[in-house]
Amino acid sequence: MAIQTAKTTSSVEKSVQRRFPRIRLQVPIFLRGLDASGVEFVELTKTLNISASGACIASNHLLHLDQVVHLTIPTPAASSSGLVPNETPPITAKVLRQQAAGELRLFGVEFLKTLE
Q: Does residue 79 fall inside a structural domain?
């Protein structure tokens, strides 16, 4: 019985830790950072879900836990007026989790500054 209580408490603690709800939304992003061997890379990938405080992203690269990466969202071709930027300002995030998914890896990242 104590084991079941511990599992229930653990599940509740995880849901309490999430400050913002996740939205299942695939957004194309440029992922910039250093791979596990220290080589700088830029990869066009996507989010699998996103919230105001973080996201789950797919990547071909191996990243370290607690590593800082930069995410930008590409925009359509620039307009001639110059009022529409080519991409969003970088979103800085820290890698919290990783999971293998075939040849890809899924990473849970926390934004260092909450999206508004």
A: yes
User: For residue range 96-107, what is the model confidence (pLDDT) as tens digits?
Assistant: 999 999 989 999
Expressed as residue numbers, the domain containing 89 is 20-111
Q: Is the Cβ–Cβ distance between 29 and 71 less than 8 Å?
A: yes
Q: In this predicted structure, what is the pLDDT of residue 40? A: 96
C-alpha triplet 19, 52, 94: angle, nearest 5°:
90
Tell me the C-alpha distance between 89 and 107, whole Å: 21
Q: In whole angstroms, what is the distance from residue 64 CA to residue 115 CA?
A: 23
CB 50 within 8 A of CB 93: no
CATH of the domain at 57: 2.40.10.220
